[in-house]
Write a structure and sequence with these properties.
CATH class of the largest domain: Alpha Beta
Distance between the termini: 45 Å
CATH architecture of the largest domain: 2-Layer Sandwich
Number of helices: 13
Number of domains: 2
Number of strands: 6
Order of helices and strands: HHHHHHEHHHEHHEEEEHH
CATH topology of the largest domain: Endonuclease, Chain A
Strand content: 5-15%
Shape: elongated
C-alpha cells in the first residue's frame, strides 16, 4: 500500500489534528466526552490514532469545536474515510501488532535495540519459524506460518528500491549466542545478518558481554521516524498482551539519548561483522 494512504498513519495525523482543535478550543478530553456522551478513553484513543475514526466522529467533534470552515471539515472527513482503508497486513487476518506494522510500513528510519533475539526485519525464514514456535508453544501451525509470512513481508521495506527503510540495529551478544533452532539455522542466520549489514542503509552493531552493564539492560525497544515532519517519532515497546507507544517529545528524547549511548558503547560496524562471523564459526564446530 502506498505510504500516502497508510491507514495507521492517516489515523495518527487525523488524531493529532483533532487534538489541536480541542486545545485551541481550550477544552479537556473529559469535557468533550461529557458533551458527546461518550467515555473519555474514547476521545483519547481517537486522538492517539489507536482507534478507527468514523466520519460521524469527525462531524460530532468539529461541531463541539465549532469549526466553521467547511473545507477543514471536509478535509478531516476525507482523512477519516481514508483511515478506514485496509493495509496489506489485514489480508493475513488478526495480527496482534498491526498498529506497529502500519507505522513501520510508513517509517523512513528505524532504530532498534534487542537484547535477546535478532530483530524481525533481519531474520531468516528458518530462524523466524523456530523463534515463533518457541515463543508461542500453544499456537497452531497455521498461526505460526501466518506470522512468519507477515514477518517476511515486512522485510520488503529493506529491499524497497525507491525508498528503503533506514535500519540501525544494536544487538546484545546474547541475541547471537541464543541457539534458536539448530546449529545450521544459527549459522545461516548469522551469515544473513552479516550480509544485510553490508547494505548502505543497514547498520548492525553488537554490544559484547565484556561491556558489562549498559543503558539497554532494561529491555528491547524501537524508535520509528517518518518522512513527513508532521508525523512525530514513536518509541515502540513490545509487550506480551499489549504494546506501548510513546509519542511525547520528552519520552522520545530520553530513548533517543539512551540509544546514542548504546551505539557509542557497541562495537563499530566492521568490528561487529567480525564478531558475528566468529560466533558463526563457534556454531560450525
Amino acid at each position: 500500500m502506498a505510504s500516502n494512504v497508510n491507514p495507521t498513519v492517516r489515523r495518527r495525523r487525523l488524531g493529532q489534528e483533532l487534538r489541536r482543535l480541542r486545545e485551541l478550543k481550550g477544552m479537556t478530553a473529559e469535557e468533550v466526552a461529557e458533551r458527546l456522551l461518550v467515555s473519555q478513553s474514547k476521545i483519547s484513543r481517537l486522538e492517539n490514532g489507536r482507534r478507527s475514526i468514523s466520519q460521524r466522529d469527525v462531524r460530532d467533534l468539529c461541531g463541539v469545536y465549532e469549526v466553521e470552515d467547511h473545507r477543514i471539515v471536509e478535509s478531516l472527513m476525507q482523512m477519516a474515510k481514508d483511515s478506514r482503508q485496509q493495509g496489506w497486513w489485514h489480508s493475513f487476518g488478526d495480527i496482534p501488532y498491526s498498529v506497529y506494522i502500519g507505522l513501520e510500513t510508513d517509517a523512513a528510519s528505524l532504530r532498534v535495540y534487542d537484547p535477546l533475539v535478532v530483530p524481525g526485519l533481519l531474520q531468516t525464514r528458518s530462524y523466524a519459524e523456530a523463534l515463533i514456535t518457541g515463543a508461542l508453544p500453544e499456537a497452531a501451525p497455521g498461526d505460526i506460518d501466518k506470522r512468519v509470512q507477515v514477518r517476511l513481508r515486512r522485510q520488503e521495506r529493506i529491499s524497497d528500491q525507491e525508498a528503503p527503510l533506514r535500519l540501525w540495529a544494536v544487538l546484545d551478544e546474547a541475541a547471537l549466542r541464543r541457539a534458536v533452532g539448530n546449529e545450521q539455522v544459527m549459522i545461516q542466520q548469522l551469515e544473513h545478518l552479516t550480509e544485510m549489514s553490508q547494505l548502505p542503509h543497514v547498520t548492525v552493531q553488537v554490544i559484547p558481554f565484556t561491556m558489562g552493564a549498559h543503558p539497554g539492560v532494561s529491555g528491547q525497544y524501537a524508535i520509528l521516524e517518518f518522512p513527513d515532519a508532521a508525523d512525530s517519532s514513536v518509541v515502540y515497546i513490545e509487550g506480551v498482551t499489549s504494546d506501548l507507544y510513546l509519542e511525547k517529545a520528552n519520552d522520545v528524547q530520553k530513548y533517543s539519548v539512551m540509544y546514542e549511548h548504546l551505539r557509542a558503547q557497541a562495537l563499530n560496524a566492521d568490528q561487529s561483522r567480525e564478531f558475528i562471523a566468529n560466533i558463526a564459526k563457534d556454531y560450525a564446530r
